């Protein structure tokens, strides 16, 4: 009897997993000021400049309320605060440059919570096999590359927000 119930449960879980669409196909976001959680490595000069000078201004121009992990303060368990921020975000922007394990972990949390995730990277080599089937906005850290990133980032976010 127990074995039959376990088999039945296994079949039900399999059906549930098969029926779930990827997060990228989620419906349009219609809030006035949607929340965006930015996942990226901290402390690398080039990525800090990219964040401050390009990503954050472009995302704010898209009328997003942005937050990054180092914007969270308090005495709570850090990963619980990050999970809560991911959970409350309407969309996620994640830079996979450098193959940072924390970034991959947080992207996994976002996918598990079925959040729409825009992946960025300076190199396709930084994208692990199990994420290569997803769109990745690749960019170069050059003046022209950052300008192209700005334009493409705005296009992708507009699409994710369901805006023309």
Topology readout:
Blueprint: H1 2-19, E1 35-39, H2 45-61, E2 65-68, H3 78-88, E3 91-95, H4 101-112, E4 117-121, E5 136-138, H5 143-161
Helix pairs in contact: 2-5
Structural class: alpha/beta
**Could you give the order of strands across the largest sheet?**
2-1-3-4-5
Summed over residues and divided by their number, the pLDDT gives a mean of 80
Specify the CATH class.
Alpha Beta
Low-confidence stretches at least 5 residues in length (pLDDT < 50)?
A: 11-27
Q: Specify Rg, calculated over alpha carbons.
A: 18 Å
SSE arrangement, N to C: HEHEHEHEEH
Kindly state the percentage of residues in helix.
40-55%
Write down the CATH topology.
Rossmann fold
First-to-last CA distance: 55 Å
Please give the CATH architecture: 3-Layer(aba) Sandwich
What number of domains? Answer: 1
The portion of residues forming beta strands comes to: 5-15%
Describe the protein's architecture and organization.
It contains 5 helices and 5 strands; from the N terminus they run αβαβαβαββα. With 164 residues, it is of the alpha/beta class. It has a 5-stranded parallel sheet, sandwiched between helices. Helix 4 links the parallel strand 3 (91-95) and strand 4 (117-121). Helix 2 packs across helix 5.
